[in-house]
Amino acid sequence: MTEAHQNIKTAAIELDGSPLHVRSCGEGLPILLLHAGIADSRMWQPLMEDLCCSFQLIAPDLRCYGGSPVPNHAFVYHEDLAHLLVHLESDRSWMVGASFGARIAVNFCLVFLRG
Questions:
Q1: For residue range 71-107, what is the model confidence (pLDDT) as tens digits?
Q2: What is the 3-class SS of the chain, one letter each residue?
Q3: Which domain, by its residues, includes 94?
């Protein structure tokens, strides 16, 4: 196991009454890595190993994917991101999304960044 791999932490963060599985590493302004609809946060593992020494990377398993279970209440993916940023005590971040993850990032921007 590489040193960079060992620096990647996993945690279950309680958001809106149910856990959200998150991989994270590094420091600084968060960069949220949003996985494709056919994957989970593990798709970002190689990128995290390469970049966690330079950036704070946060890769959640979106609800119903990977280690994040299906909640027993209604939810909206982009609202989960807003709750995650509050949990991280960050009022801003970068977002990188692949496919379905990009759609969620765009929805987040349309809802929360309207001027």
A1: 999 999 999 999 999 999 998 999 999 999 999 999 9
A2: CCHHHHHCEEEEEEECCEEEEEEEECCCCEEEEECCCCCCHHHHHHHHHHHCCCCEEEEECCCCCCCCCCCCCCCCHHHHHHHHHHHCCCCCCEEEECCHHHHHHHHHHHHHCCC
A3: 3-112
Distance CA 63, CA 66 (A): 8
Q: What type of residue is 23?
A: R
What CATH number does the domain containing 27 carry? 3.40.50.1820
- Please tell me the pTM assigned to this model: 0.93
pLDDT digits (tens, 9 = 90+) for 40-63: 999 999 999 999 999 999 999 999
Total domain count, the chain: 1
